[in-house]
Design a protein that fits this description.
With about 375 residues, the protein is an alpha+beta fold. About 40% of the residues lie in helices and about 10% in strands. The protein has 14 helices and seven strands. The strands form two sheets. It has a four-stranded antiparallel sheet.
């Protein structure tokens, strides 16, 4: 077991690994976190694809410098003190609010010259491709002295606010003349589809669609869950579910009993494109996921499968077990409630529902949509 200096606790290393926005820093903290948990250098090198020598060098940097030794050190000139300190950036922000001495516009060389004077240096190398608009010291007030605002918007500026007419007007008699945002006619045939044309999304969960004689309300998660489930079954019956290899295998910590149950069913899970293997006594490494699920919460899926497998009856037929796996994977790979959908995405979901068998209910037996005829709505308002 490699020695890991006690700069940060195992929990703190895990939090840094999960919270890092920078990919390089995240992978470095993941490596040290795995080493601190007791995994060998060889195991961590194989998992992270860093290589044994690089893993050892990264550990040496962490032991010597702590968290400052991780991440891309080129930006900070190694572990040396950074020259772009908050107080200097604040002075630069104030200076950029006014034109440079020559009255033109700020450039990389001009900013470097000013900063060299502030730091007492003879010169300072300018950053290539520097743009003051992307600078951390850009003034909050963008009304620059050399480009004052006019009393009113010019015609060119006003044109930016002209978004045209509504994307679609599917009222009877108006659909033929409606145009979308690109100026193309919206087909009136959308109303003739069984689930109609999407009109709105409410509470970021339900799609409201209009038909010729009523309206349809669709639960987007339940509907997409059924679609994914049927696609998984079709792929399984054909040539197998295509896989996607994870760039960084995901480590999922579980009880030892759950690890044993999952690895015992590894062949069945592999048929669905889910490749995992043991990673120590209380964890599994998820290396591949079904490509048709896209980006998913791999650890949540594995834990959910482990919970379901623990409840299986050993006498349960293989086909039933496979369908339960497909149901769990479809739930994790479908559009979640709370996701905003574009009009074209909502209409595409409606068309897929119409072409999918059993799309009226999700895998758990809940309805995916309800339909209200115009006569039903009129009764609600006392018109009939």
């Amino acid at each position: 077991m490699a020695y890991v200096a006690d700069h940060l606790s195992v929990t703190a290393l895990e939090e840094r690994y999960e919270a890092c926005d920078d990919v390089t820093s995240s992978r470095h903290f993941q490596t040290i976190w795995l080493l601190a948990k007791g995994h060998t250098v060889g195991e961590v090198a194989a998992l992270t694809s860093f290589g044994r020598r690089w893993t050892e060098q990264l550990l040496e940097r962490y032991n010597a410098l702590g968290p400052l030794g991780l991440g891309d050190l080129r930006r900070g000139n190694g572990a040396a003190a950074r020259i772009l300190k908050p107080e200097l950036l604040e002075r630069l922000r104030v200076r950029l609010a006014d034109p440079p001495p020559d009255g033109g516009v700020w450039t990389s060389a001009k900013a470097a010259c000013w900063m060299a004077g502030e730091l007492g240096l003879a010169s300072l190398a300018p950053q290539r491709g520097w743009d003051w608009r992307r600078s951390p010291a850009r003034p909050a007030d963008t009304r620059r002295p050399f480009a004052p605002l006019r009393g009113a918007f010019a015609e060119a500026a006003q044109a930016a606010f002209d978004v045209g007419g509504p994307a679609a007007d599917l009222r009877p008699g108006f659909a033929e003349a409606a145009e979308d945002a690109k100026g193309e006619a919206v087909p009136a045939e959308l109303l003739d589809h069984p689930l109609g044309a999407a009109r709105a999304q409410v509470h970021e969960t339900y799609i409201v669609a209009q038909t010729r004689d009523g309206l349809v309300i669709v639960d987007q998660h339940a509907a997409h869950e059924r679609i994914v489930y049927e696609k998984l079954k079709a792929a399984l019956d054909a040539s197998g579910v295509p896989r996607q290899i994870l760039l960084i295998p995901e480590i999922v910590e579980l009880d030892e009993a759950d690890v044993e149950r999952l690895t015992a069913r590894a062949d069945e899970l592999a048929r669905f494109g889910l490749a995992l293997e043991t990673f120590g006594p209380g964890a599994v490494a998820l290396r591949e996921t079904p490509s048709l699920l896209g980006e998913i919460d791999g650890s949540g899926l594995v834990r959910d499968l482990a919970e379901h497998i623990s409840e299986w009856d050993e006498t349960l037929p293989l086909e039933r077990r496979l369908m339960q796996v497909a149901s769990s994977m479809a739930c994790h790979g479908s559009v979640r409630a709370g996701r905003r959908l574009k009009p074209e995405e909502m209409n595409a979901l409606l068309r897929e529902m119409e072409a999918t068998p059993n799309s009226g209910q999700c895998n758990h037996g809940r309805p995916t949509y309800v339909e209200l005829k115009l006569t039903d709505i009129e009764r609600l308002f006392g018109r009939r």
